[in-house]
């Protein structure tokens, strides 16, 4: 099986390189690294859990489109929330993106690496190579 890194180098807003891949393809699966709610300015979007969840999923969706994949190809998601009280509003936004056939999912409450981040989402995608 061939393993391929996808998405180019990862850097922090200040240009510091981060030793990880945005995504890795292994066979028919694509594993996306955890996505934070970065805005176009490189900062975490403001406004709380709903806009951050929406931004994370919008960024994941855009990344998948560049790989000729889509959210319906997601088979598993792992979610980190910094506040368990954010779980209900998180689910409301999440359901907008995964309404009919949501993927398997785990959600945990944990601190995140950036202090303004309230949610991080990583996904596994099944997308056979053509």
Structural class: alpha+beta
Give the CATH topology: 60s Ribosomal Protein L30, Chain: A
Distance between the termini: 15 Å
Helix content percent band = 10-25%
Mean pLDDT: 94
Task: List unreliable stretches of 5+ residues.
Answer: none
Strand order of the largest sheet: 1-4-5-8-6-7
- By CATH, the architecture is named 2-Layer Sandwich
Could you state the order of secondary-structure elements as H and E? EEEEEHEHEE
Put simply, the count of helices is: 2
Rg: 14 Å
CATH class: Alpha Beta
Shape: globular
Number of strands: 8
What's the CATH H-level superfamily name?
RutC-like
What is the strand content? 25-35%
Biggest beta sheet attributes: 6 strands, mixed
**Total separate domains:** 1
Q: How does this model look, in words?
A:
This is Reactive intermediate/imine deaminase. InterPro entries: RutC-like_sf, YjgF/YER057c/UK114. One of its GO terms (cellular component) is cytosol. This protein is α+β, with helices and mostly antiparallel strands and 130 residues long. The protein has one domain (3-126): RutC-like (60s Ribosomal Protein L30, Chain: A, 2-Layer Sandwich), CATH 3.30.1330. It is 22% helix and 29% strand. It is built from two helices and eight strands, in the order βββββαβαββ. The strands form two sheets. It has a six-stranded mixed β-sheet with strand order 1-4-5-8-6-7, covered by helices on one side. A two-stranded antiparallel ribbon has the order 2-3. A hairpin with a 2-residue loop joins strand 4 and strand 5. Helix 1 runs parallel beside helix 2 (87-97). The two termini are 15 Å apart. The model has no long low-confidence stretch (mean pLDDT 94).
């Amino acid at each position: 099986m061939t393993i391929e890194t996808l998405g180019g180098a990862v850097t922090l807003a200040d240009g510091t390189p981060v030793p990880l891949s945005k995504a890795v393809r292994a066979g028919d699966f694509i594993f996306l690294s955890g996505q934070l709610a970065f805005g176009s300015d490189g900062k975490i979007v403001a406004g709380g859990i709903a806009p951050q969840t929406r931004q994370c999923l919008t960024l994941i969706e855009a990344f998948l489109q560049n790989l000729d994949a889509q959210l319906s190809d997601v088979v598993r998601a792992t979610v980190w929330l910094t506040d368990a009280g954010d779980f209900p509003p998180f689910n409301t936004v999440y359901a907008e993106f995964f309404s009919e056939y949501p993927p398997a999912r785990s959600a945990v409450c944990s601190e995140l690496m950036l202090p303004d981040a309230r949610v991080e989402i990583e996904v596994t995608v099944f997308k056979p190579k053509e």
